Amino acid sequence: MPKAIRVHETGGPEVMRLEDVTVPKPGKGEVLVEHKAIGLNFIDVYFRTGLYPAERPFTPGGEASGIVLEAGEGSGFAPGDRVAYCVSSGAYAERRVLPADRLVRMPDSVSFEQAAAIMLKGMTAWYLLRRTFPVKKGDTILYHAAAGGVGLLLGQWAKHLGATVIGTAGGPDKVELALKHGYDHVIDYKSADFVAEVREYTKGKMCDVVYDSVGKDTFPASLDCIRPLGLFVSFGQSSGPIPPFSINILSQKGSLFATRPTIFTYIADRGELETAARELFDVVATGAVEVVVNQTYKLADAAAAHTDLEGRRTTGASVLIP
Questions:
Q1: How far is the C-alpha of 69 from the C-alpha of 241, rounded, in Å?
Q2: pLDDT by residue (tens digit) across 162-190?
Q3: Which residue from 164, 174, 200, 292 has the fewest beta carbons nearer than 10 Å?
Q4: What CATH architecture applies to the domain 3-119+264-321?
Q5: Is the distance from CB of 141 to CB of 163 less than 8 angstroms?
Q6: Do 127 and 261 form a contact (C-beta atoms < 8 A)?
Q7: Average pLDDT of 136-149?
C-alpha cells in the first residue's frame, strides 16, 4: 500500500506521520502519478502549523515530479509520461491522483529532482518577475532571503532580464552563496542596516520593487528601500505576519504601491500555467538559471526537513525522495 505524510492536528514537525493511504483509480480527466521527487517549501510549514487553514487530516506539499502510472479518459496524458506540478497541498506522498489540467510535461533536459525543486519556487519567481512587476533592463530590485530556494532562482533570472539585483541574507556563507547566483550586492542583515546599505549602493535612488517573503522582521523597513511610485510585494511571512498598518504609510513613503499576491491566482488559467512552465524550463535548459538542490531527505524524514527549514539551516532548494 502506498504511503503519505498525514497531519491530523496542527503543530510542530512531529505532527507529520508517515501512514498507509488508499489511492483511487484516476477518473475522467485525471491522472495517477508516481512521485520521484517532492519539493520542500515554507508554505508547507504554514499549513502544518495552521497559519494557513486546511481541512484535517491532510497531506502537505505543493510541488512534485514523477511518472504517469495511469491516465483517465480525456486526460491527454499516457502511462510513462514525465510530469510535474504545483498545487496547494498533497505532494508528500508516494502516489496520488491529480486533475490533468494541473500537470505539465517535463522536458528530458530537466531531472525529476530539478523539476520538484522549481515548480512552486520557480513559478513563484516567474510570476514575481514576469507578472507582478515585469522586470526589465535597468530596473533595480531588492529581494529578501536571497539564499533561499526562490531567492537563488529569482536572482539569476532577474540578472538574465538585465536588472540590478540586491539581496539580503543571514550570515557570510549565505551572502557568498547569493553572490554566486545573480546578485550584484548582498547585505548581511545580521550585521548591517539593509536600508542604509541599499541607499548607499543605489546612491540614494533606491529600488523599483522590493520582494519580501520574510514579513514581520523586514517591515516597515522594506518600504524605505523603495523609490517614489515603486512597488512593495509581500508574498510570504517566514518571520511572522506583517502587523496591521495604516494605508496612509504608503503615501508618506512616496505614493508607493503594495500587493500581497499568491501563485495560485497567477497560474489558475491553464494557458498561464503552460506559459509559466515553458518560460521556467527554458531558462533552466539554456543555463540562464541554475537549479541548486542542496538538501535531500527521505519522505519518511519530512519532520527533520521541516526542522532544518524553520531553523534556517537550508540553502537553495530541498527535496524529499519517496
A1: 40
A2: 999 999 999 999 999 999 999 999 999 99
A3: 200
A4: Alpha-Beta Complex (3.90)
A5: yes
A6: yes
A7: 95
Architecture per CATH, 137-260: 3-Layer(aba) Sandwich (3.40)
- Could you tell me the residue ranges of all domains in the chain? 3-119+264-321, 137-260
Residue 238 is predicted with a pLDDT of: 85
State how far the Cα of 122 lies from the Cα of 130, in Å rounded to an integer.
12
User: pTM for the full model?
Assistant: 0.89
CB 152 within 8 A of CB 292: yes
To which H or E segment does residue 115 belong?
helix 112-127
Which one-letter amino acid corresponds to residue 14? E
Nearest to 149 by CA among 258, 40, 8: 40
Distance CA 237, CA 168 (A): 15
First to last CA, the chain: 13
| Cα 146 to Cα 138: distance, rounded to the nearest angstrom | 20
Contacts 24+ apart (CB under 8 A), 191-199: 194/168, 194/218, 194/221, 194/225, 195/221, 195/224, 195/225, 198/142, 198/166, 198/225, 199/225
Per-residue pLDDT, 317: 85
> Cα–Cα–Cα angle for 139, 130, 102, nearest 5°?
160
- The C-alpha cell 502519478 sits at 33
Nearest to 58 by CA among 101, 27, 15: 15
DSSP 47-65: HHHTSS--PSSB---SEEE
- Closest among 38, 305, 294 to 180, alpha carbons compared: 294
Report CA-CA distances (Å) from 228 to 31, 95, 189, 212, 316. Answer: 48, 49, 24, 18, 32
